[in-house]
Amino acid sequence: METALQKVQLAEDAWNSRDPERVCLAYTIDTEWRNRAEFVNGREEVKAFLTRKWEKELDYKLKKELWGFRENRMAVRFEYEWRDHSGQWYRSYGNELWEFDKNGLMRKRYASINDLEITADSRQLL
C-alpha cells in the first residue's frame, strides 16, 4: 500500500511539473499508452505527446487518487483542470490502468478521460 500510494504521488508531482522530459523517465523505453482515442508507443512518443498536450492545456493542475492495486498493476482515478487558448476552463475526469515492469517503470498506461467545461470561478484545483 505504501509503495502504491508513493507511486501515485510521484506521478501527480511529475505531471504537475508539465515537464515532458521529467515525466517520460517514469516509463519504459517501449511503453504502450492509450490516452482517450490516441495510441502512443515508446518514450519518445510520450515526450512528443506531452509536449503537444501542455501546449494546448494551459495552467494544467492535476490530482490523482489510488483506486486499487495488485502485484504490478494499479488503477488510479484522477481529475485535472486546464484552460484553452481562448480562456475556456475545463475539468477533465478519468481513470487510468497502469502496469509496471520489474524495475518499477510503467510499461502500460490506459487512460479514459471526459472533459467538462467549467467557469474560472468554479475551479477546485488551485
UniProtKB/TrEMBL annotation:
Out of the domains of life, which is the source?
A: Bacteria
Pfam families on file? DUF1348
Q: Known InterPro entries for this protein? A: DUF1348, NTF2-like_dom_sf
Please give the Gene3D superfamilies that the UniProt record associates with this protein.
Answer: 3.10.450.50
Q: Give the protein name, as stated in the record.
A: Nuclear transport factor 2 family protein
Q: Which organism is it from?
A: Dyadobacter helix
From the broadest rank down, the organism's phylogenetic lineage runs:
Bacteria, Pseudomonadati, Bacteroidota, Cytophagia, Cytophagales
